[in-house]
Amino acid sequence: WVWVLQGWDRQDPPSPLTIPGGTRQSPINIQWRDSVYDPFLKPLKISYDPTTCLHIWNNGYSFLVEFDDSTDKSIIVGGPLENQYRLKQFHFHWGAINDWGSEHTVDSKFYPAELHLVHWNAVDYPSFEDAVMEGNGLAVIGVFLKLGARHEGLQTLVDALPAVRHKDTVIEFDEFDPSCLIPSCPDYWTYAGSLTTPPLTESVTWIIKKKPIEVDEDQLEAFRTLLFTSDGEEERRMVDNFRPLQPLMNRTVRSSFQ
Ligand code: BO1
Ligand code: ZN
Predict the structure, then answer these.
(1) What is the model's pTM?
(2) 75 within 8 A of 49, measured Cβ to Cβ
(3) How many angstroms is it from 246 CA to the middle of ligand 2?
């Protein structure tokens, strides 16, 4: 088993000839006409309790909003999932400019940013760290961000970003319900994939919402004022924190809609 950290170290761009790390790596291009409608896919049910929200953390790759995952208070169920999954954290990936930034693409189109809500299977596994190692351990909801109207729900988060500008800074952030960041349109694509940063384990059921949310230029610019670097280091702006597309290989992308 060889871990190929393709696209991870932004200062050392990967060769396009790099051998992929496995058979179900993420992200991928979702080719709309190649996705297969599955009438047995259930609607995804999201139930988050804002009191489980804990803090925002700049981890030097993105900013993470982390949740108390010691109970089943914030969960998703249904969709392609066989049991319920607990919310652990959410974060974003974005570009230096609006022409790219998402990890997944739809018909080769990049969005300026992508939200990932990361959940783990607490029915079958005792901890997130155990679930990361298993094929059905994680479920990540992906939501594309497109340029448009200011997003009021996101603004609460944007207002907190100056406090976590540097790597390894954390602030308290409570009573936030991330369901305000998920479009109400029920349509999604789903496929079996991996984490997009190390450890890149092939443990993720991806659920990619078809409809993007709208955010404005100022909100994307606020993401771009964050830093990859710690206080005291030479400043490097946190931009282009996405992994390159990975080969689909022997996988089918299913859609919940016709
Ligand atoms: S992503 O949603 O595929 N971009 C993704 C990538 C990496 C992680 C999570 C989501 N990594 C894990 C780390 C754990 C950490 C956990 C929760 O995130 O492997 O060490 O506890 O924040
Ligand atoms: Zn992510």
Answers:
(1) 0.94
(2) no
(3) 14
